[in-house]
From TrEMBL:
Organism superkingdom: Eukaryota
Domain Gfo/Idh/MocA-like oxidoreductase N-terminal per the UniProt entry, residue ranges: 7-126
Gene3D superfamilies reported in the protein's UniProt record: Dihydrodipicolinate Reductase, domain 2, NAD(P)-binding Rossmann-like Domain
GO MF annotation, one: nucleotide binding
PANTHER family: NAD(P)-BINDING ROSSMANN-FOLD SUPERFAMILY PROTEIN, PTHR46368
Family matches, as Pfam families: GFO_IDH_MocA
The name this protein goes by in its record: Gfo/Idh/MocA-like oxidoreductase N-terminal domain-containing protein
Amino acid sequence: MAENQTVRFGIIGCAGIARKVARAIKLAPNSTLYAVASRSIEKAQKFAGNNGLSGTVKTYGSYDQLLDDPCVDAVYMPLPTSLHLHWAVLAAQKKKHLLLEKPTALDVGELDQILEACESNGVQFMDGIMWLHHPRTAKLKEFISESNHFGQINIIRSTSTKPATQDFRESNIRVKPDLDALGALGDLGWGHLLLHCIISLGTIRRNGCNDSLLFSFPHIHGLGYIGLQWFAALLRLHYSVPREICFV
């Protein structure tokens, strides 16, 4: 695509985050929201109506219909992580550029397949981690890289917590292993891992963690297993600064 060409986006899936991204697409000077797809036409039309898009975007009752639309240049995909591999690869095969919500895949193997599909079909891939691509984050890295500000960094710790209502525990995809098996690790964990890499001024490699891992897979009365809710680890990366992460 030419640099000055307007990108016509389609949204596959009407998750809550799609509302914010739809607004961002509309406000961007080089993009327009062209179509929205859900598992039913009623859901797609409801999403369009609730977000002031009725009459301005096409609505589809299946993801395949949107991907088959030749007027869609790129797709934003906020689907549950367990669905990413199938639909992301299919989108690439349909020659649609891909903005994929985090976590991008259930594991590295799935992500490799998605990236290979994008590369072999000549389309661009971008993750949906706004914080990573924000100018403020680049400024943070620049500031921290000046050793006279902080001196030697000896250890990094980060923690996040998030309240979980009864409705969250019963219906959110992050407590449903068949939809989003990474749970807290895939949700809050992204920010922690990236923050540690930025502060350490290094790049991400597949070195993993040490053996000191703590997990919580709680069984709530009446709900059964509700997924990975608590996670802590001491990372073993290729830089020398120890770091600990914890998110619940």
